[in-house]
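Researcher: Sequence recovery benchmark, item below. Answer with residues only.
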C-alpha cells in the first residue's frame, strides 16, 4: 500500500467514523439545536466522501442543498417554534423497546445484505469531466424538465411572497359601514364645534 492509498483509506475511515458519531448524536441528544448542528456535520462528512470518490458535482449539491437549505430550514424551524424542551441538559432520550427492536432488526438485515452480496468491481476509468457531461445533458436532453422545474420554483416563490404578505383584509363590519357611508367608529374623529 503506497502513501496515496493510505491517506485515502485513513480519510475515508475517519469520515465514516464522523458520520456514525454524528448520527448517534442526532438520534440521542435531547437538545434539538445540537442535534440539528450534528446533522449538518453529517451532511458535510457525506459531501467530503463524495469528494474522495471524485464526484465533485454531488459534493457541491450536497453542501448547497442539504447543508445550505435543508439544515438551515430545520434550524430556523427549531428556533422559531421555541418550544421549551424537557431534559435540555443534554441527557440522551430513552428509546422505546419497539423502536430499538425495529432499528436493530433493520441494521442486521442491511448488514447481512451488504456482506452476502457479491459486488461487481468495474475496471472502467472514472470520467474526468463529469460536470461538463452533466451540463451538456441538462441543457440538451433534459431541457424541458429543467425549464418546468424553474417555472415551478418561480410559482412557489410567488406563493411564498403572497402568503408572507400580511395585508389587513377589511372586516365585514367595515364593509357594511363603507356601503352605508357611515363613519368608521374605530377611527378617531376630530372634535367638531357646534
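Model:
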Amino acid at each position: 500500500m503506497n502513501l496515496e492509498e493510505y491517506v485515502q483509506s485513513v480519510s475515508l475511515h475517519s469520515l465514516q467514523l464522523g458520520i456514525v458519531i454524528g448520527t448517534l448524536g442526532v438520534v440521542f441528544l435531547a437538545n434539538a439545536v445540537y442535534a440539528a448542528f450534528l446533522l449538518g456535520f453529517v451532511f458535510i462528512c457525506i459531501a467530503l466522501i463524495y469528494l474522495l470518490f471524485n464526484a465533485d458535482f454531488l459534493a457541491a449539491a450536497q453542501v448547497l442543498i442539504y447543508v445550505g437549505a435543508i439544515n438551515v430550514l430545520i434550524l430556523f424551524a427549531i428556533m422559531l417554534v421555541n418550544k421549551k424542551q424537557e431534559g435540555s441538559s443534554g441527557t440522551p432520550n430513552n428509546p422505546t423497546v419497539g423502536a430499538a427492536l425495529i432499528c436493530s432488526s433493520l441494521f442486521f438485515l442491511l448488514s447481512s445484505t451488504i456482506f452476502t452480496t457479491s459486488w461487481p468491481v468495474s475496471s472502467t476509468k472514472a470520467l474526468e469531466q463529469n460536470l461538463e457531461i452533466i451540463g451538456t445533458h441538462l441543457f440538451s436532453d433534459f431541457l424541458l424538465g429543467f425549464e418546468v422545474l424553474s417555472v415551478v420554483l418561480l410559482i412557489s416563490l410567488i406563493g411564498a411572497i403572497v402568503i408572507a404578505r400580511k395585508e389587513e383584509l377589511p372586516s365585514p363590519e367595515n364593509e357594511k359601514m363603507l356601503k352605508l357611508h357611515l363613519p368608521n367608529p374605530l377611527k378617531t374623529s376630530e372634535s367638531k364645534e357646534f
